[in-house]
Amino acid sequence: xxxxxxxxxxxxxxxxxxxxxxxxxxxxxxxxxxxxxxxxxxxxxxxxxxxxxxxxxxxxxxxxxxxxxxxxxxxxxxxxxxxxxxxxxxxxxxxxxxxxxxxxxxxxxxxxxxxxxxxxxxxxxxxxxxxxxxxxxxxxxxxxxxxxxxxxxxxxxxxxxxxxxxxxxxxxxxxxxxxxxxxxxxxxxx
Length: 190
Prior knowledge:
Number of strands: 5
Strand content: 15-25%
Number of helices: 6
Order of helices and strands: EHHHEHEEHEH
CATH class: Alpha Beta
């Protein structure tokens, strides 16, 4: 699948490990709400959103995007856990203007706190993938090659690897509306 859009919004993480599924769940919500057909919907995420996601939060999110139009040149991608090794290196093949990464980030805050991070100033190890891959280095490299990189990170409450536990904790689920506000602002949706 080509990723030749100007703006890539990629959700990173693993839906099998509680809050680590934050990025893919946000992306799947946006794909569904904007009727984006550029990537496939993860059936596990779709099932979670339709059957277990807080209905009041889902309604709030739906209201945020109601009557909004996705700008041309924006693509939502569920990067799963392979983004650092399989997706981020693709930047050299495309002319991305902006890469927005949605993921859990360990930082000094309460679980469910959402913030925006610049990879060029992130402390090494602050944004290590729960599977042991360093994420800052490829994102710094991308940001040094004429592509703005924005990390929208949420402090997780629970990432129970290696134990499988799907779904999001309450504070992370409640953080999704703010996350979507940040993404909409970053992609220029008014």
